[in-house]
Amino acid sequence: MSAFRDQDPRIHGIQTKIRVVPDFPREGIMFQDITTLLLDPKAFKDTIDLFVERYKGKNISVVAGIEARGFIFGPPIALAIGAKFVPLRKPKKLPGEVIKEEYVLEYGSDCLEMHVGAVSAGERALVVDDLIATGGTLRAAMNLLERAGAEVVECACVIELPDLKGRERLNGKPLYVLVESH
Amino acid sequence: MLRRLLLRSPNSISQPLPTSHQLLPPSPKVPFSAWIAAASPAGQPPSSCSHNCRLALRSLRCAAAGGGGTESQPLPNQGMAAQNEKDPRLARISSSIRVIPDFPKKGVLFQDITTLLLDTEAFKDTIDLFVERYKGKGISVVAGIEARGFIFGPPIALAIGAKFVPLRKPNKLPGEVISEEYSLEYGKDVMEMHVGAVQEGERALVIDDLIATGGTLCAAIRLLERVGAHVVECACVIELPELKGRERLGDNPLFILVSG
């Protein structure tokens, strides 16, 4: 579901603050840059508020954020809804015991890690990232949480690129986004 | 559940790490070597990347700014969070931080804040302690250092009404950036900030989870000062005082919650 369709008056302000940078990281890619959103305190606050309003009081005890831009949006949401924040990281960043989930990239593969013991069986979790493209990273994140016995309630992103059909790769789990970019 | 798996040693608020059966002392051959920067050759002119040992810094501090707060009114209780008042929140924050020996390499005692993030009360208290200090001080920029500075910086920025500026490793920020090189134990690294993110005259904080030698924080300060911002203070959850990062910051104030 997209708040854009609901036409919450805050959405327009958020959307106009996202900067599109052509040919980054490679030619032909239109990069959705959320850093300009973070420079506008009202728009950044509205972004967080929209997620918090949706998830507060829903008995969600875990907000998992995907490195690195998920670390910007996840913790404010976690703090506001009283959930713990769990960072999901690239390999070898988390100290101590981790579980790993490999996922496929356009060329090659990558790996996401989560701390053993961060999440308990039966906990209700959100996965947060700035953007969903193909959905590969989010799917890996969901797998990590589910392997630890958590229930992924929803994936939440600021931006969706619907043409890349990431929504279909989430094993039927719901996806909530604020803006779409075609 | 996580605590049962931990090799726990509480971080004291104001004392060095206690030695105990739970805690491996650092190897005397390699004390915190991961964070000690290599010295730059004496006699070479300082460049943007030569601020990597205290000898060079005596002639060229990473910034000459004095005091926090306004030019004439530094922020109170500089340096340590409420140490003298013994804020009751600090004990829980300190004990929620996990120490992992021999990470990323042997002899290093890694201060892991992820366990603090799992304690909702401790995480909230951590943010509150910073917000209470910085709210209403005319700070318009919170700059956070990738990646753990991204966890603490945004909640602080949101609460004090400032913008959040991510300071990133190379080639992560799209569009035009300015770059600052800094030294590591072996070799160098680069920190980047977006052109136009910060305006001249803005008052800024720099946030990271931990200060070790201070090299990363110095690079962050230089980036902000290059665009004409005034760095009011650097704020970290943890300080490793033996590595003398505070000294490396020179006149730039440092505020921390716990000492590792």
UniProtKB/TrEMBL annotation, chain A:
Keyword Cytoplasm: yes
Subunit organization: Homodimer.
Compartments it resides in: Cytoplasm
Catalytic activity: AMP + diphosphate = 5-phospho-alpha-D-ribose 1-diphosphate + adenine
Keywords associated with the record: Cytoplasm, Glycosyltransferase, Purine salvage, Transferase
Designated name of the protein: adenine phosphoribosyltransferase
Signal peptide: none
Source organism of the structure: Hevea brasiliensis (Para rubber tree)
Pfam families: Pribosyltran (PF00156)
Lineage: Eukaryota, Viridiplantae, Streptophyta, Embryophyta, Tracheophyta
Top-level lineage group: Eukaryota
Coiled coil start-end: none
Pathway: Purine metabolism; AMP biosynthesis via salvage pathway; AMP from adenine: step 1/1
Enzyme class: transferase
Cited InterPro entries: Ade_phspho_trans, Adenine_PRTase, PRTase-like, PRTase_dom
EC identifiers of the protein: 2.4.2.7
Domain Phosphoribosyltransferase: 41-164
Family the entry assigns: Belongs to the purine/pyrimidine phosphoribosyltransferase family.
TrEMBL record, chain B:
Keyword Glycosyltransferase: yes
EC number of the protein: 2.4.2.7
InterPro entries: Ade_phspho_trans (IPR005764), Adenine_PRTase (IPR050120), PRTase-like (IPR029057), PRTase_dom (IPR000836)
Biased composition (Polar residues): 9-22
Annotated segments matching region Disordered: 1-25
Top-level taxon of the source organism: Eukaryota
Catalytic activity: AMP + diphosphate = 5-phospho-alpha-D-ribose 1-diphosphate + adenine
Keywords: Cytoplasm, Glycosyltransferase, Purine salvage, Transferase
Residue ranges annotated for the Phosphoribosyltransferase domain, each copy included: 128-246
CDD domains in UniProt: PRTases_typeI (cd06223)
Family: Belongs to the purine/pyrimidine phosphoribosyltransferase family.
Subunit structure: Homodimer.
Designated name of the protein: adenine phosphoribosyltransferase
UniProt organism field: Hevea brasiliensis (Para rubber tree)
